[in-house]
Amino acid sequence: MSRHVACTAAELPPGARKVVEVEGREIALFNVEGRLHALLNRCPHGGAAICAGVITGLAQSDGPGDYRMERRGEFLRCPWHGWEFDMATGQSWCDPRRTKLRNFEVSLEAGADLVRGPYVAERYPVTVEDAYVVVEL
Amino acid sequence: MNAPFVEQKARQTLTIVDCDIHPAHRTPDELLPYLEPHWREHYQTYGVHVRQALSSALMVPRMMAGGMRSDTLPERGGPAGSDLGMLQKQHLDPVNVEFGLLMALSKGGMEERNPAFAAAMSRATNDWQVDRWVRQEPRLRAGIVVPQEFPEAAVAEIERCAGDRRYVQIMISSRPSDPLGHPRYWPIYEAAERAGLPIGLHPVGYNGGHPSTGSGWPTFYLQEHYVFTACMEALATSLIVGGVFERFPNLKFVMVEGGFAWAPALAWRLDGHFEKFRKEVPHLKRRPSEYLREHFWWTTQPIEEPEQSRHLVEIIDWIGWDRLLYSSDYPHWDYDNPSFAFKFPMTEEQRRKIFRDNAFALYRLA
Amino acid sequence: MRLPFAGAIDCDFHPAAPGMPQLLPYLDEYWREQICNRAIDRMSFAMMSYPPNAPISARADWRAATEGAGSLAQVRAQLLDGFGLKFAIANVIHGCVALHNDDMAAAICRAVNEWLRAEWLDREPRLRGSILVGPQDVSQAVAEIERLAPDRRFVQVLMLVMGEKLLGRREFFPIYEAAERHGLAIGVHAGSTYRYAPTIVGWPVYQFEDYVAQAQAFANQTVSLIAEGVFRRFPRLKVVLLESGVSWLPMTMWRTDKTWRGARSEVPWVDRWPSEIIREHIRLSTQPFDATDATAVAQTVDRIGSEEVLLFSTDYPHAQFVGEEALPDGLPHEMLRKVLVENALATYPRLAQDAATPAIADAKEDV
Ligand code: FES
Question: What is the CATH number of domain C8-366?
């Protein structure tokens, strides 16, 4: 397990998404209303780059003809076949046990902590004043 | 459903043939320069005349982005599939396409009700395919779109295009007005056989006027997506039972985007009841399954995904590894990426056949 | 193969459909008058799907069974005794359901059901019946179910696989509600009212094609029932596909499962894998099976992935098998008891009760 600075917090404001490469892997970063998600940028189903997915909620129902949207902003719909993934866990809604998007721990860290700590990423010149998105691989 | 995803680099090193790529018009007027002046005016005044209520929307709307991969919108504007550069960058180059077969669905006259206009639109669409796509990207090949409901005009269009090797097949909608074994379509088969071209059957949004099922219309897209297979089953049945292959022994059909896992069960049903109906179809000299195996090819997308992938391997073993042709359906939502769609082990030889060699042989690509 | 033991339940056999003269005693005065004065009693109601003389419609050695009088005796000899059956469910396919006048269709359906009750069920305790209805008039269909439900020898409601609308549609829910409440299964049998061409690509040239296309109709109805959430709304309902063929089912499961994963939000009430819902709620009769050999049968069973789905049937007197080989070769041996007996008992709650009550099951024959 190693921690990597992926980008500055300013590069990933609420509503933004971004693809970064960490240790040779493409990671899709999302900031949904302040919640950060780091997901491997490849759909486990057919290989789509899920960074182009649609952020959505979950359509639920009590029976035929009943529709309601729940959990707004918590799901990512794959840009190809539309499978729905819970962004917090990476699990496919239809098949949570067997189909998962790889997801990674991600957090916002103050530059001051990073400079002190053991996790400084070589490719990022970290400054004390800024905040950073840190991904754990 | 699927084996847990094992991270791997795209392993598509083989060059491949993609048997289903959809080119789109960049603007609604894109076909105009290819139409004769009076048809240009007709089109601008009246538009198309097809057998459904909405002239340019489907009455069972698609799920994803109008039926498109949501990452295929060209940066330069225009609808998905309208930008050659994007097709190259997003699909042809990365998946290593050696040849890509165009399936021009839109406004090709296949479902137009006005016979003369249908013929004009087919001509325009065929010229457009070559001019705007094949001429500019030598990896692409065109399919001759025909006004299928008017066989005389269809034959004329086949004869106009067939000498040009950039057209590698004849394309017919898999939702015709009558089952394709009906003798009224036979002139088309005669022309196809003469030209030495296979016939590709592909669903076209509009239809021959029949509901999607024998019990009327489906409510949801979940149902409408399913009937793509029912078309192919009914057409295979009709072509075989109608005796088309007794009359045209060299004719070849490619079932595009209609699944393939139905083939064994359909053949078993046909063979199983053949004896009882034999006297009704005395023109059949062999069991129906023999015609199915000999005269049909299937493209792979959207590939069936049984919980146990060995079930799909059994199906392919029955159909024959020499009968499947890889297709992507770019830029449609149910696109199959060649590196990920086949979730079962294949030998190198099987891969080569499905991804390349079968299509090379069938379409005589070079 | 032959049945390995006596006591099987045949879920699909056909008494010869009654001619109109046979039904007259079961019609009320108004309809009797209408039918006689309009000479409807001289019309054949033979279905286009089953031309009476076509080889499919009756096995040559059973042909006599289609010839009216004495047919109960033949059913006893050829079917009930011949195969050592415990129960056989009579499905009367009568052409009246194709009439455009819903009132006349409903009146004749009532007569057919009464005829079945009086001339078959009352005379032979091993027989059970299906309530024939025309679903296009939902309220009359429900009324007929309510009328006959107290007679526990009726074990299911019977409809054709091709009608005016797909069977999943919400307007049919009252039929399913009544069936579920009374412990009746819904039987869907091959056949069409030909409101539309039987295929998506239009009218076939040959009868052979029409027959083959029935399998696609069953697949479409299966997808419709799933997509519309019928089993979410009626969790105890079972739908039995009769003379549907079997081997098409796995592909339908695979494809619907896959499409559902992308289209789920369109039908959010479908909250489980379609294949799982199918395995729980849909049943198929075993004749015809539509698999050429034992390997194909075994492959089909393996792909369906459940031992509960298949119900034994002969489809008597239709020509589906030769001699006494009523069971398709290739069914796993350990599944036979389920296919022949237990699955039917689990599908038809009324049969299960009767089977558990010897007094009823062995009631005296009234000859
Ligand atoms: S590639 Fe993501 S759902 Fe198929």
Answer: 3.20.20.140
